[in-house]
Amino acid sequence: MLYVTVGLCAVLAGVFLYTESRKQYVPAVILKGLASLCFVITGILCSNGSQLAKMIILGLAIGCVADVLLNLRFVFKEKGQAVFLVGILVFLTGHIIYLAAVLPLSANWLLCVVIGIVLTAALMVWIFKQITAKKAFKIFGVVYIGAIMLLNVVAIGNLITAPSVFTRLFAGGAVLFLISDVVLILNTFGEKTRQSLRNTNIALYYAGQLLIALSLLGL
Predict the structure, then answer these.
(1) What pLDDT score was predicted for residue 44?
(2) 212 burial via Cβ count (<10 Å: 0-12, 13-18, 19+)
(3) In whole angstroms, what is the distance from residue 83 CA to residue 72 CA?
(4) Are the C-beta atoms of residues 135 and 85 closer than 8 Å to each other?
(5) Which residues of the chain have pLDDT under 70?
(6) What is the pLDDT of residues 64-101, one digit of tens each?
(7) How far apart are CA 88 and CA 81, in angstroms?
(8) How far apart are CA 111 and CA 107, in angstroms?
(9) What is the pTM of this model?
(10) Which helix (DSSP H) or strand (DSSP E) does residue 174 occupy?
(11) CA-CA distance, 16 to 36, in Å (whole number)?
(12) Helical residues (DSSP H) of 22-134, grouped into ranges
C-alpha cells in the first residue's frame, strides 16, 4: 500500500502541475488536494499509534488543508491575497504541530531556539533583497520562516544527538519543506513567476511531506 500511496502522490502532483500550468484552476485544486491526501494516508499507514505519530499525522492533515487553500487563491482571484494569507497561517499551524511533536526529543532546545533565530534573520534579510511584498506578507513571512527554520534546527539537532530512521527521514523532510517554501516565496513575490520554479517548489514540497510521513516507520 505504501508503494501505491507514494506513487499515486507523485503522479497526482505531476498532473496537478500540468493542469495548473494550463490555467485550469478548479480541477487543479482537486488534484492537489488528492495528491496531499496521499501523504496523509501514507502517514496513517506508517503510524504505530503513538502520541508522536498522531501529532505528525495531524500536521500532515493540516498541510493537506493548507495546500487546497493556497491554490484557491487562483480560483477566487478577487480575494487571492486574503486566501493566500489564510493558507500560510494554516501551514504555520502545521509547522507548530510538527515542532511540538519533535521538540521533546531535543537534547538542548534552548540552543536550537537561538540558532533558529539567527538563521531566520540571515535568511529573511536575503529573501527581502530578492522580493517585493506588502508589509503584511513580510510579517507573515518572518513568523512563518522562523517556525519552519526552528523546526529544521530541532530536527537536525535530534538527528545529530539520536540518529535513527525516524530522525533521518524527518530531518530530510523538514529540510526539503524549508527549501520548497523559500522557492515558493521567491516565485510568488519575485520579479517574474516561472513555471520551472513552480515545478521545483511542488516537487520538493511533496518529497518533504512524504519523507515526514514515512519517518513514522522508524518509531
Answers:
(1) 98
(2) buried
(3) 7
(4) no
(5) none
(6) 999 999 999 899 988 877 888 899 899 999 999 999 99
(7) 11
(8) 9
(9) 0.95
(10) helix 165-189
(11) 11
(12) 25-46, 51-75, 80-102, 109-130
Reading phi first (left if > 0) and then psi (alpha if -120 to 50, else beta), residue 108 is in: beta
Are 210 and 42 in contact by the 8 Å Cβ rule? The answer is yes
> Which pLDDT belongs to residue 173?
98
Cα–Cα separations (whole angstroms), residue 103 to 28, 46, 63, 145, 190 = 35, 21, 19, 17, 33
The residue with cell 498522531 is 54
* One-character DSSP codes across 126-140: HHHHH----HHHHHH
Euclidean distance between CA atoms 138 and 10, whole angstroms: 31
Amino acid (1-letter code) at residue 114: V
In one-letter notation, the amino acid at residue 36 is S
How many other C-beta atoms are found inside a 10 Å radius of the C-beta of residue 29? Answer: 22
Backbone torsion region of residue 150, taken as left when φ is above 0, otherwise alpha when ψ lies between -120 and 50, otherwise beta: alpha
C-alpha cell at 11: 503522479
Rounded to whole angstroms, the Cα distance separating 93 from 173 reads 17
Angle at alpha carbon of residue 182, lines to 181 and 188, rounded to 5° = 85
Instruction: Determine the number of helices (DSSP H) and then strands (DSSP E) in the chain.
Output: 8, 0
Please give the radius of gyration of the chain, using alpha carbons only, rounded to the nearest integer.
17
> What's the grid cell of residue 63?
498541510
Would you state the pLDDT for residue 19?
98
